[in-house]
Specification:
seven-stranded mixed β-sheet; 28% strand
Length: 137
């Protein structure tokens, strides 16, 4: 377990950029946290670090998944049945891509044992980020 305290969104983005540089596909990152905790900010920073600062990264809340040449970003908030996960390509992404999953609980049975779980909670005006999982694959 590793812990990081972020005092503001810029620190959170900086941490996520450093984290991104350690990732190699396939890797699955499950982002846990309540609404507004920074899951999308972390995902956006990872994608921009690996695919270029000018990469447009909309939230996949309504599209459910966005793909960025070997990075798949899933937002499972609106998924109600785990059977839908095969239809949106989750298993393929997990096997091949750097896969970022917001609201991963519904996909628990599909996540590989080496999934990196990131838990984000409020910490004063900032965020506490707890990382569980092994980066040394």
């Amino acid at each position: 377990m590793t812990e990081f305290i972020s005092n503001n969104v810029n620190e959170l983005r900086g941490w996520a950029a450093d984290f991104a540089r350690k990732l190699h596909a396939p890797a699955t990152i499950a982002l846990h946290g309540d609404l507004g905790m920074g899951k999308s900010e972390i995902a956006r920073a990872i994608i921009k670090t690996l695919r270029g600062a000018d990469t447009v990264v909309p939230s996949p809340t309504f599209t459910i998944v966005q793909n960025y040449d070997g990075i798949s970003h899933f937002d499972l908030y609106r998924i109600e049945d785990s059977d839908e996960l095969a239809e949106i390509g989750l298993q393929h992404a997990i096997a091949n891509d750097i896969t970022l999953i917001e609201w991963p609980d519904i996909a628990a049975e599909f996540l590989p044992a080496d999934t990196i779980n990131i838990y984000i909670t409020a910490h004063g005006d900032g965020r506490r980020v707890v990382i569980m999982g092994n980066m040394g694959k």
